[in-house]
Amino acid sequence: MHNCYFFSEKTSQKIKNVFAISYNGNLYFQIKAILKNRNKDDRAQSSSLQNSFVRAIMGGENYLYTEAELVNKWAAGTAVNFGVAGGAVYQGLIKGKGIVWDFKNKEFNIFKSCKDYNEFIEPKLENAVQQCEKHQPDMLQVREAISIIK
Which pLDDT score is estimated for 73? Predict the structure, then answer.
């Protein structure tokens, strides 16, 4: 399972305020930890499911990679002000965004947009830069690039 919650065996309460959990050979990052430890340029990202976890999809010596449903909180705030129609717009703003844990810099880098992804990948793997026909990068191409630089 990619998105989940973890519960304490002793108290049956949701586990909160942890960085990550290793479970059945998989590593899961808590969304709250991703947002708390993100690159300073990724500050507008948010989630309504901060106590949930996302599984690390791949990793290597440089990065661990995952994807999470995050939203730009300023765009979401604007959408919510438009009532029921705004709620539908808000749901459309939530995207599965690529996220890398950068071992060297000890921070998460969230690919907020195709442009943001390109700025991250260009110095590392120039031929993985995308043409940005849409606001979000092609996630299959993102995964391929990360599998090379991981």
Answer: 53
Own/partner pairs for 108-112, CB < 8 Å, 24+ apart? Answer: 108/29, 108/34, 108/37, 108/38, 108/39, 108/42, 109/38, 109/39, 109/42, 110/34, 110/38, 110/39, 110/42, 110/45, 110/70, 111/137, 111/142, 112/42, 112/44, 112/45, 112/72
| Strand ranges across the sheet with 53-55 | 3-4, 53-55, 26-30, 20-23
Strand residues in the chain grouped as ranges (E): 3-4, 20-23, 26-30, 45-46, 53-55, 58-59, 63-72, 95-102, 107-110
Contact 19, 33 (CB under 8 A): yes
Q: Domain ranges in the chain?
A: 3-70+97-149
Q: Which of 24-28, 44-48, 108-112 has the lowest mean pLDDT?
A: 44-48
pLDDT at 133: 85
Residue 86 has pLDDT above 60, yes or no: no
